[in-house]
Amino acid sequence: MFGVSVCHSKPQSPQPQGLSTCDATLCEPEVRALIERECAMVATAELTSAEVLRRNVALFQGKFQRVAGAMNEVRNTAAR
Predict the structure, then answer these.
(1) 57 φ, ψ (degrees, to nearest 5)
(2) d(CA 14, CA 16)
(3) What is the DSSP letter of 28?
(4) CA dist., res. 16 & res. 33, Å (int)
(5) Does any domain span residue 19?
(6) Would you say residue 8 lies in a domain?
(7) Any bridge partners for residue 14, and if so which?
(8) In this structure, is residue 3 part of a structural domain?
(9) Which of 2, 27, 26 has the alpha carbon at shortest distance from 12?
(10) What is the pLDDT of residues 21-77, one digit of tens each?
(11) Domain range spanning residue 36?
């Protein structure tokens, strides 16, 4: 359904259709590092916690909307 090949004798690997619908940055250390940097900026009073929260909610809303927008493509691919 989500673009993963199923073969019991081999490891599973993502397929292009599945990869095109996900946000690869969610799996990269840069996202966590950004949040950690911003939290450190709260500790030094460079940013407020409300600002960090606003920035990160906006960041993840965008990521969610991109993936949610691609769900029709996933359904169509899975239905084939």
Answers:
(1) -65, -45
(2) 7
(3) S
(4) 27
(5) no
(6) no
(7) 4
(8) no
(9) 2
(10) 677 777 778 888 999 999 999 999 999 999 999 999 999 998 888 888 888 777 777
(11) 24-70
Q: Which are the contacts of 67, defined by CB distance < 8 A and separation ≥ 6?
A: 21, 22, 23
> Tokens 């407020």 map to which residue?
48
From residue 49, give the alpha-carbon distance in Å to each of 9, 36, 46, 53: 49, 12, 10, 6
Count of domains forming the chain: 1
Is residue 4 in a domain? no
Rg (CA), the chain: 17
Q: At what angle do helices 49-69 and 29-43 cross, to 10 degrees?
A: 160
pTM exceeds cut of 0.85: no
Contact (Cβ atoms closer than 8 angstroms) between residue 18 and residue 3: yes
